[in-house]
Design brief:
Elements (H helix, E strand, L loop, with lengths): L1 E6 L5 H11 L3 H5 L6 H15 L5 H5 L6 E7 L8
Parallel strand pairs: 1-2
Helix pairs in contact: 1-3
Length: about 80
């Protein structure tokens, strides 16, 4: 299992556009949701994984078994490290 951190301090404008396009919702609507749809998990997983592997595609994210995704943590880097 893997843990993925969606570090809000590292999100780019391009990342937000990609998430909005994938989910079909505006960023403000996404961040205000109490229980976001699975498409949001898909988009965030894609963004996180492609940072380490630029060849990681949205289709790769779709094919990631849930058992491999232990947690998707959303927030700023707890160490305060800038990226």
């Amino acid at each position: 299992m893997s843990e993925f951190t969606f570090d809000l301090d590292k999100v780019t404008v391009g990342d937000i556009v990609d998430i909005e396009d994938t989910v079909g919702m505006a960023w403000d609507d996404i961040v205000d949701m109490d229980s976001p749809p699975t498409k949001v998990l898909l988009a965030m997983l894609w963004i996180v994984k492609r940072r380490d592997d630029p060849n990681f595609t949205l289709e790769d994210a779709r094919n990631t078994p849930l058992a491999e995704v232990q947690a998707l943590t959303v927030g700023a880097d707890p160490t305060g490290a800038a990226g």
